[in-house]
From TrEMBL:
UniProt similarity note: Belongs to the enoyl-CoA hydratase/isomerase family.
MaoC-like domain residues: 16-131
Gly residues biased stretches: 162-175
InterPro entries named among the record's database cross-references: HotDog_dom_sf, MaoC-like_dom, MCH/BMMD
Residue ranges of the region described as Disordered: 155-215
Name used for this protein in its record: MaoC-like domain-containing protein
Biased composition (Low complexity): 176-191
Pfam families named in the record: MaoC_dehydratas
Top-rank taxon: Bacteria
Gene3D superfamilies: Hotdog Thioesterase (3.10.129.10)
CDD domains associated with the record: FkbR2 (cd03451)
Amino acid sequence: MAEIVQRGLWFEEFTAGDVYRHAPGRTITEADNTWFSAVTMNPQAIHVDAAFAAEQPFGQRLVNSMFTLATLVGLSVSQLSQGTIVANLGFSEVSFPAPLFHGDTLYAVTEIKETRLSKSRPGQGIVTLEHRGYNQDGVLVARAVRQTLMHCRPQDADAADGPGGAQGDAGGPSGAPGAEVAAGAQASLGPAGAGGGSGIADAGGAAGTTTEGTR
């Protein structure tokens, strides 16, 4: 009987153009927003003062955008970087095109933009990702380009992962640029148009075949 290790992807398993749809999504609560704002020393009234926020343009409290960004990245971890990342190198082009409110559900999509071996760190490579976050209605609420330093596949990785690797034969990229990879056996994320095949692909995902992951 094989023993399969759950992990993210090694550097070699990333292919520019691949799109990953992560599952499950994360429903954001009032407690999440209040707690995050408190522990990050952010007393911004638009996040924590319901009466004040009711008189502002959106008519209600906004989810702290730093919480949105952190959650967007977090939703990708189990599928892409769990145990295989060396370091987060930085973010660029961060934007929040629409607000996120209490009770909204955040769904994440990641597109692989570029990969290259590190010139100064043998056995490691740099992967440029574009994370996109959508609410339950398929509205883009967050976008960030991110660079990560990833481990290359260790020589003993095949033995540790078991047959087919940690992701199984269908879990990682197919090798064909532009493949779309879904987490788990869930073909669509959330309600129709909010992360399903058409809702997210039409909003900036790469058009390609969908591969169902095994994790």
